[in-house]
From TrEMBL:
Keywords: Membrane, Transmembrane, Transmembrane helix. It comes from Proteiniphilum saccharofermentans. The chain crosses the membrane at residues 23-44, 64-89, 110-129, 135-152, 159-177, 183-201. This is DUF998 domain-containing protein. The lineage of its organism: Bacteria, Pseudomonadati, Bacteroidota, Bacteroidia, Bacteroidales. The keyword Transmembrane helix applies.
Length: 209
């Protein structure tokens, strides 16, 4: 009896320590929706890019500068929708768990996530304006993977493996620039959906039980 009580006490202490040091309000549903947003964005971007790719010279053509504002707009819409979805579902989950959404772990998680992501985003804009579009997709995947790995120390550890998957896909994409949009859609779309489904059934439902 005493052993069982000791085990339960250790479990309670562990849960309390995780709540105070890690951001645990992430939702698998938000990851699935982000993946769907990315696939929709890739579809729209394909329609914008296709006419330019038909011009001789492909990636070096100045025609890319003319579509740069449209590509940036699509990327911003996907980003804003994704961020809004994360915040909404995370806040709702935090409320269900009866703890504050705005806390130290949340600040650390978002800071470590957005710092490399912001640098990567600015770098991608510079590449797009300069016409160096062939390496934008791998750069986005690589910086995003680094952002996930960086943030995984302050939230669910399995996000580390999602980050590694994005890094691997980014490296593959670097060797096949002509397939950039396809690999981008797989990285930001398909991987998010697969991870969201895994997280929902293997982490969220298990924790709730």
């Amino acid at each position: 009896m005493k052993n069982n009580e000791a085990v339960e006490a250790v479990k309670e202490i562990r849960v309390m320590m995780e709540k105070s040091s890690r951001f645990l309000s992430f939702s698998g549903t938000s990851a699935i929706l982000i993946g769907l947003y990315a696939l929709a964005g890739a579809f729209v971007a394909r329609g914008i890019i296709s006419p330019v790719k038909e011009i001789p010279g492909e990636y070096s053509t100045p025609g890319w500068i003319t579509i740069a504002p449209h590509i940036i707009l699509v990327a911003l819409i996907v980003f804003v929708l994704s961020l809004s979805t994360i915040l909404f579902f995370s806040a709702r989950k935090a409320k269900k768990m009866n703890h504050s959404f705005i806390n130290g772990p949340a600040y650390r998680t978002f800071l470590n996530f957005f710092l490399p992501l912001t640098v990567g985003g600015i770098f991608c804009v510079a590449l797009l304006v300069g016409g160096d579009v062939g390496i934008i997709a791998p750069v986005m995947l690589l910086f995003y993977g680094l952002s996930l790995i960086n943030a995984s120390k302050y939230t669910y550890g399995n996000i580390f493996w999602l980050g590694c998957s994005e890094l691997l896909l980014g490296l593959i994409c670097a060797f096949f620039p002509g397939k950039g949009l396809l690999l981008w859609a797989i990285g930001f779309g398909v991987l998010h959906i697969v991870y969201g489904i895994y997280f929902y059934f293997r982490v969220e439902r298990y924790s709730a039980a």
